[in-house]
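Q: Now give one record:
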Amino acid sequence: MATANGPRARALAAALRQARQERNMSIRELGRKLSFDQSNLSKIENCKKVPSVELTARILGALGATPDECERILALARRASEPNWLAVGIPGLPEQLAGAMESEREAKSIVVWSPMTLPGLLQITDFVRALAVANELPKHEIERRVTVRIARREVLTGRDPVRLEALVSEAALREPMASPDVMTEQLRHLLTMADQPNITIRVIPLGVGWHPGSAGPFVLYEFADAPPFVHFEHYSSGAFVTDSDDIEAYRTAIRMISRHALSPADSKRFIAQVIADDWSSSDQTTLAQK
């Protein structure tokens, strides 16, 4: 087994952990079935070690994984050492979501640029549901997305929470992605989260002209014990990028976007004003004046 911390390896670790947990099997029990040291299994599930394809197949066999699970997880294992990861088409995105969630769980800091909608980690339940309904997803998929989103928020509020810097365009605050009541609640949630010591929210006003963020959204993950990487996702495609030159380019992009951003304090006042002007009744004007 090789040691690796790339996005595919993180997705593989998350997939194996989920497969075991769904069967209510402990790591100790799985170790006994495999005659394999449970401490190494724990390292596999926490992406400290990456299993070979052969060991992955043994683990899946001991778990009684379905053919579809085996095909999906073995595909991750075969390419776990590859640094960059491009997925085109909806079927490739669930594995990338697993990689993103695992990255959120292990990252020491995250910088997200959100030009058209609000960062996922800062979305409230009703906002997530409104986006899913607008996307005409089936009911079971809507509820699955809500459940996943709620679970992802724990990285911001749990013990030793990740540091998050959210660079958000004014457009994301004003676009009617949900009902006025939900938009009001969502933006108030941003104000609440902005008070947390590990969270910085900065608004980029409209009208500032071109900057690198004009090309689209992205997320930069930084780790204490692994190289950083960038994730970006569009409607039916997504990619993780790990090349050091690319990472430095995205860091430069963040610096350039930040030059146009309001300070954290001014951003809070701006968000409160948007609530009063766009989404709430006139009695919210006092909130905007704070």
